[in-house]
């Protein structure tokens, strides 16, 4: 954020995309004042129709503004509307003590000839210039999610900022990885504070010491030495005390999951979390080829068909095209989603290779799977409740935090939600690595004992894919 001059309250001029992105932005500026140009209200009016997330946000902004008005007359509007009364109704927001101003008169804009005043972005910049001249005692700052508008503002000498209140972390490198490599002398330093026992064929350790304070529930632990110690945190009864459990080694054939074995340490941790009935929510991050979808599907099939833990698999993803949109698609909901589910089909080919039976065996297996795997669209998730389902959300990095909340809260009793994604491949406008809904849930769920996360590091698709990921 830009340094405030003299620590005085600022006047923030909001761009339309900020309110479209976060309707509660009106209450996120604490003691500072807000200014809404008339062109912003016009753009909000044009964007209110439809069933998209943006349209819903615009309608919520309109409701907030209507409540703030509260029958105020022209004099009260000119004096600025107090933002405080609604702050308590904004979902746990801190009280905003600033005021909201509207453009009530026509401004004479003094923009360069290269910037026509008929363009909405240029009008916002021109209004910020006028406000800076008319109110020299206030620092006027434009807030926008549009990078190009901020670049033009810098060229004109106007202070502009990105809207960063939705930013989960300052840097994506700080995101919780779900794994901690223990120091080589870990057991020597904690030897006197360790209890070990076995229960139902599983080995547990109770460990105490200062290193435990930085652990999270369901965090994966490893120690690089000959015996390849790998464990997961099961309980943290105290700040410096934890119960850890040795994980099952899915790298050996006898512990395969639907015919799939782990090829590295992170994949082994992922399979342990995916197969764990105590973990209701699992997130897998990783670049292309790390095996996210394959592992999630294999674990889902094993628990649906072999263990009868869940009734069916529901696969869904965000329909954001990488290239040009191919337009409307015919058919049912599932048929419309089929072109987006190439990853599902590719991985099912790997998982349904019968050891015997030839084409007949493959077709029989595919018929069985079609009855237990359902493809759904995110557009129709609102209001639903899923019971005893295994839900896989692919390409979750393209969801906003609000969309992610909408999906996860659909889970009923006995349902497990698995989110897959790569935050370095975001296709949704105005979303970044630090504001993605996937980043948001990874950070918020790390303290919950029934949620697990692991970042897959090594690509296992092919040597060609690995080389391309590293060099291109």
Automatic annotation (TrEMBL):
Residue ranges occupied by any PIN domain in the UniProt entry: 10-151
SUPFAM superfamilies to which the protein is assigned, alphabetical: P-loop containing nucleoside triphosphate hydrolases, PIN domain-like
Listed InterPro entries: P-loop_NTPase (IPR027417), PhoH (IPR003714), PhoH2-like (IPR051451), PIN-like_dom_sf (IPR029060), PIN_dom (IPR002716)
UniProt keyword annotations, A-Z: ATP-binding, Nucleotide-binding
Record Pfam families: PhoH (PF02562), PIN_4 (PF13638)
Coiled-coil stretches: none
Gene3D superfamilies, sorted: 5'-nuclease, P-loop containing nucleotide triphosphate hydrolases
Any one cellular-component term (Gene Ontology): cytosol
Name of the protein this chain belongs to: Phosphate starvation protein PhoH
């Amino acid at each position: 954020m830009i340094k405030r001059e003299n620590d005085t309250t600022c006047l923030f001029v909001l761009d339309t995309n900020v309110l479209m992105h976060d309707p509660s932005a009106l209450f996120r500026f604490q003691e500072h004042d807000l200014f809404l140009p008339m062109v912003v209200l016009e753009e909000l009016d044009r964007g209110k129709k439809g069933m998209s997330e943006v349209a819903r946000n615009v309608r919520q902004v309109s409701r907030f503004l209507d409540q703030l008005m509260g029958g105020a007359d022209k004099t009260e509007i000119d004096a600025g509307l107090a933002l405080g009364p609604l702050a308590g109704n904004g979902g746990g927001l801190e009280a905003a003590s600033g005021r909201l101003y509207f453009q009530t008169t026509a401004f004479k804009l003094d923009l360069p000839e290269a910037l026509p005043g008929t363009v909405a972005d240029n009008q916002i910049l021109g209004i910020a210039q006028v406000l800076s001249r008319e109110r020299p005692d206030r620092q006027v700052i434009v807030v926008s999610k549009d990078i190009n508008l901020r670049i033009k503002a810098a060229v004109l000498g106007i202070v502009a900022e990105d809207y960063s209140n939705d930013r989960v972390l300052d840097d994506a490198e700080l995101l919780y990885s779900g794994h901690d490599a223990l120091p080589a002398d870990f057991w020597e330093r904690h030897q006197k504070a360790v209890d070990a026992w076995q229960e139902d064929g599983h080995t547990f350790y109770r460990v105490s010491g200062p290193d435990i304070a930085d652990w999270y529930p369901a965090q994966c632990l490893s120690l690089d030495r000959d015996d390849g110690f790998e464990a997961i945190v099961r309980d943290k009864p105290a700040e410096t005390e934890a119960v850890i459990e040795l994980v099952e080694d899915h790298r050996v054939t006898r512990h395969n999951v639907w015919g799939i074995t782990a090829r590295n340490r992170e994949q082994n941790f992922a399979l342990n979390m995916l197969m764990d009935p105590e973990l209701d929510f699992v997130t897998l991050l990783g670049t292309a080829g790390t095996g996210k979808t394959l592992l999630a599907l294999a674990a889902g099939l094993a628990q649906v068909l072999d263990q009868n833990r869940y009734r069916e698999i529901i696969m869904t993803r965000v329909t954001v095209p990488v290239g040009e949109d191919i337009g409307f698609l015919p058919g049912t909901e599932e048929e419309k989603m089929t072109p987006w589910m190439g990853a599902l089909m590719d991985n099912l080919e790997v998982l349904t290779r019968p050891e015997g039976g030839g084409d007949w065996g493959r077709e029989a297996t595919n018929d069985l799977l079609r009855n237990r795997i359902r493809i759904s669209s995110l557009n129709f998730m609102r209001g639903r409740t899923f019971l005893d389902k295994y839900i896989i959300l692919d390409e979750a990095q393209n969801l906003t935090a609000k969309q992610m909340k909408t999906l996860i809260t659909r889970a009923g009793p006995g349902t497990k939600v698995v989110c897959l994604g790569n935050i370095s491949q975001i296709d949704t406008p105005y979303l970044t690595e630090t504001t993605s809904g996937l980043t948001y849930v990874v950070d918020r769920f790390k303290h919950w004992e029934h949620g697990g996360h692991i970042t897959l590091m090594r690509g296992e698709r092919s040597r060609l894919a690995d080389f391309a990921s590293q060099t291109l």
